[in-house]
Specification:
Elements (H helix, E strand, L loop, with lengths): L17 H7 L10 H20 L15 E4 L12 E7 L12 E5 L26 H8 L3 E6 L19 E2 L2 E5 L5 H8 L5 E6 L5 H7 L2 E4 L19 E6 L2 H11 L20 H6 L10 E5 H5 L5 H16 L3 E5 L7 H17 L12 H7 L4 H6 L2 H16 L3 H19 L5 E5 L14 H5 L11 H5 L3 E11 L2 E14 L4 H14 L9
Parallel strand pairs: 3-4, 3-7, 10-11, 10-12
Antiparallel strand pairs: 1-2, 2-4, 5-6, 7-9, 8-9, 8-13, 12-14, 13-14
Helix pairs in contact: 10-13, 10-14
């Protein structure tokens, strides 16, 4: 269907030379005899754009009468915890009639829209912007009776698994100041671990729920891709985007998951998800007799343990935790999937190309909730804004532009190979209920420093060798704390170790059951000097 151009507006700003000016960036041009026609067509599409721009936007309208936002503010120094764990403090009281999450307190990662609350995104590239809608997960936890107490700090544009990159400040590990809380759901992990809130709603594009959970010593779940709507959450790469809960225990994670799952009529990632309100993950855990795993088969992934980056103390701690599954009635067997080693490279190429397009305002091809006010604020990029960006964000843009230019088929190939990895894991899950491995290869490292790009990025390097692959494949993965290991630079400092439990697609019930049984029968802090 062609654009109508019979009545180009007289004040249309498009010039005859504009078509060639646009094509010149690609080394292309139109023939001279065609230039007038392309000018007409370009002017027509400009008028079409002006018409659409003048239409009112269509975003879900939050129920501010039922859920008023009280006392929205940047926290004072006295209110701050663990450095800069809070982005904004406020109170939204949940459904007074109660629900699954009645009595629970929640923080929301500062990339998840809360209407009327300025969003910082861990950055100062642009001033904070204020959403006009609530993310679906925000509405759902309020409907389930939870109270939201604020937004928690995330890393700069969610582009780091360290916790010193936020423009608002560093987040300290709850077990040892000076060490990373992980990222990018850094502030929320610290608040949950310390019991300041019961649950944090986080985002995970490569490990951003599971890495901080592992480093801080709490439980964090990345659900199956599409189980939980991503509507109203800042996207990285649309096929890697996941959102889910962090909590002190598996049962609270399961309760929150029950509250937030299911298609919301907006996010096409969720078209295959169960109907909202139909899951019973938490109840299934409660009725398990003595939290046993009789008949369960646990695969111990060789490549997840034997990677050169895995610290021996972390490997030992997780292996000792795995052995405890046998006491619960499960059988454990070592398994091997050599292509697991390719996961980080596949994820890197995929995320750099798609992530750069998102940052440059060129993401497309999905039906979902588009936060147009955020795009208006952050685009187009300015030289000053780019210079303020953390090196990880600059790196995504530079890498993505390079890869798109020099390897034009590579994004599609990563999607194909990602499907192969998914299918290989699905074959494993035909035989094994869950697969286990260390969540991160090391315990929390020392904070890095803002300096030259490599120096700034070094504290995050290698932390996602076992997590990012499951953003590519979409499998559900939970991190639970299973013990302590010494800090790399100081053996007297003991820091949490996380075990990652992965299940088949849509098999959250098995992942949660394995984590719940381990947690119910083992004390992860037992015998450790603090």
């Amino acid at each position: 269907m062609s654009v109508l151009f019979t009545s180009i507006s007289p004040d249309n700003p498009v010039k005859k030379e504009d078509a060639n000016a646009l094509l010149g960036h690609l080394g292309l041009s139109v023939e001279q005899e065609d230039e007038e026609d392309y000018h007409t067509l370009l002017a027509a599409v400009h008028d079409c754009a002006e018409t659409v721009a003048s239409l009112p936007d269509y975003q879900p309208v939050p129920d501010l009468d039922r859920y008023p936002r009280q006392d929205v503010r940047r926290p004072s120094p006295e209110e701050q915890l663990f450095g800069q764990a809070w982005a904004h403090k406020f109170l939204i009281k949940g459904n007074p009639g109660g629900g699954l999450l009645a009595g629970k307190t929640i923080s929301v990662k500062d990339c998840i829209a809360v209407a009327g609350v300025p969003q910082l995104l861990g950055s100062d590239i642009i001033p904070s912007w204020t959403p006009v809608t609530d993310a679906t997960v925000v509405t759902r936890v309020l409907d389930a009776g939870a109270d939201i107490h604020g937004t928690s700090t995330c890393e700069n544009y969610c582009h780091s698994t360290a916790s010193f990159t936020s423009a608002q400040g560093t987040i300290e590990n709850p077990f040892a100041a000076g060490y990373s809380a992980g990222g990018s759901t850094s502030g929320g992990a610290a608040l949950v671990t310390a019991g300041v809130v019961d649950i944090t709603l986080g985002g995970d594009q490569g490990g951003s729920i599971r890495v901080p959970s592992a480093l801080c010593g709490c439980v964090g779940l990345k659900p199956t891709y599409g189980l939980v709507p991503f509507s109203g959450i800042a996207s990285g790469d649309a096929i890697d985007d996941h959102t889910g809960p962090l909590a002190q225990n598996v049962l609270d994670v399961a309760l929150c998951l029950d509250a937030i799952t299911g298609y919301d009529g907006i996010d096409d990632r969720c078209l295959c998800s169960p109907k909202h309100g139909s899951t019973s993950f938490a109840n299934s855990l409660r009725i398990e007799p003595q939290a046993r795993l009789d008949g369960f088969k646990v695969g111990v992934l060789k490549e997840g343990f034997d990677h050169a980056a895995v610290d021996p103390a972390v490997k030992y701690t997780v292996m000792a935790a795995v052995e405890k599954f046998t006491d619960l009635g499960a059988t454990i067997e070592e398994i091997s999937l050599p292509d697991h080693y390719h996961g980080p490279a596949i994820w890197t190429i995929q995320q750099r190309i798609s992530g750069s397009m998102t940052l440059l305002g060129q993401a497309h091809g999905r039906r979902g909730l588009n936060m147009t006010e955020m795009e208006r604020e952050r685009l187009p990029w300015t030289k000053e804004g780019f210079q303020r960006a953390f090196p990880s964000t600059k790196n995504v843009i530079i890498n993505g532009l390079y890869l798109s230019s020099c390897f034009p088929d590579l994004y599609g190939k990563t999607v194909n190979i990602g499907r192969k990895l998914r299918d290989q894991y699905e074959e494993i899950f035909q035989k094994y209920d869950v697969v286990v491995m260390p969540t991160t290869p090391v315990v929390a490292p020392r904070h890095g420093a803002r300096g030259l790009p490599v120096e700034s990025l070094k504290p995050s390097m290698g932390l996602t060798i076992n997590t990012a692959i499951f953003n590519v494949t979409g499998h559900p993965a939970i991190s639970i704390p299973v013990g302590f290991a010494p800090a790399k630079d100081d053996a007297k400092v003991k820091l949490p170790v996380g075990m990652q439990i992965v299940g088949g697609l849509w098999q959250e019930s098995k992942v949660l059951r394995a984590g719940y049984a381990w947690e119910a029968n083992c004390d992860w802090k037992e015998g450790v000097e603090h």
